[in-house]
């Protein structure tokens, strides 16, 4: 596991209709690894997830700068497909990627990135390929039928793959690597009891 000394925080986007199950593995284990998780809303006004959880953002989107962050996480939400309310988050993702700072998007957030043109020239995945087609994006040939995909500093995944999504984030940030990363994934994705021994030996 990488050292936590001097580590920048991870920013988790939160907005109404947030799919609250999609990023739980990612944020929980990043926090256990020493990352501070900071929530970012459209403003600092409370938002409510699909599951009815009320979240008070710690920061407003306008106050977040790529240079102050280790990663921007964009969860899915019904709002991604209901208009342009969340488009500012996709534009912020562009700023992060342009600055060389990682972005991880799952479910509906992948459609938001497609509309922003961020998937036109990057390998990516989502729920299914035809979900992204109505965005009018030009990256259909870069779609990968996989549980989660990393291309450079961008991680994408579909709504049924929160564990694979976390796996890719951990690999990208160097939180877990090699045998330990594989064991973590097998434990939480496959309920593989043998993975416990590997993690225990590694002190996880």
UniProtKB/TrEMBL annotation:
<dbReference type="Pfam" id="PF01965">
    <property type="entry name" value="DJ-1_PfpI"/>
</dbReference>
<feature type="domain" description="DJ-1/PfpI">
    <location>
        <begin position="10"/>
        <end position="170"/>
    </location>
</feature>
<dbReference type="GO" id="GO:0016798">
    <property type="term" value="F:hydrolase activity, acting on glycosyl bonds"/>
</dbReference>
<dbReference type="InterPro" id="IPR002818">
    <property type="entry name" value="DJ-1/PfpI"/>
</dbReference>
<keyword id="KW-0326">Glycosidase</keyword>
<keyword id="KW-0378">Hydrolase</keyword>
<dbReference type="InterPro" id="IPR050325">
    <property type="entry name" value="Prot/Nucl_acid_deglycase"/>
</dbReference>
<protein>
    <submittedName>
        <fullName>Type 1 glutamine amidotransferase family protein</fullName>
        <ecNumber>3.2.-.-</ecNumber>
    </submittedName>
</protein>
<dbReference type="InterPro" id="IPR029062">
    <property type="entry name" value="Class_I_gatase-like"/>
</dbReference>
<dbReference type="GO" id="GO:0005737">
    <property type="term" value="C:cytoplasm"/>
</dbReference>
<keyword id="KW-0315">Glutamine amidotransferase</keyword>
């Amino acid at each position: 596991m990488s050292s936590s000394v001097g580590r920048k925080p991870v920013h988790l986007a939160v907005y109404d209709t947030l799919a609250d199950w999609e990023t739980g593995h990612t944020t929980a284990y990043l926090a256990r690894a020493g990352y501070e998780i900071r929530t970012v809303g459209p403003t600092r006004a409370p938002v409510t997830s699909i599951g009815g959880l009320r979240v008070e953002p710690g920061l407003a989107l306008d106050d977040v700068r790529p240079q102050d962050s280790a990663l921007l996480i964009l969860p899915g939400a019904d709002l991604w497909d209901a208009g342009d309310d969340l488009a500012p988050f996709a534009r912020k993702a562009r700023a992060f990627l342009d600055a060389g700072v990682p972005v991880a998007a799952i479910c509906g957030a992948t459609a938001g990135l497609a509309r922003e043109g961020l998937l036109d020239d990057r390998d990516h995945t989502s729920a299914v390929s035809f979900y992204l087609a109505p965005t009018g994006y030009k990256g259909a040939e870069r779609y990968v039928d996989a549980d989660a995909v990393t291309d450079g500093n961008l991680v994408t995944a579909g709504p049924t793959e929160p564990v694979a999504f976390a796996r890719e984030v951990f690999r990208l940030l160097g939180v877990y690597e090699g045998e330990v990363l594989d064991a973590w994934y097998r434990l939480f994705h496959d309920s593989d009891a043998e993975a416990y021994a590997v993690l225990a030996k590694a002190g996880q």
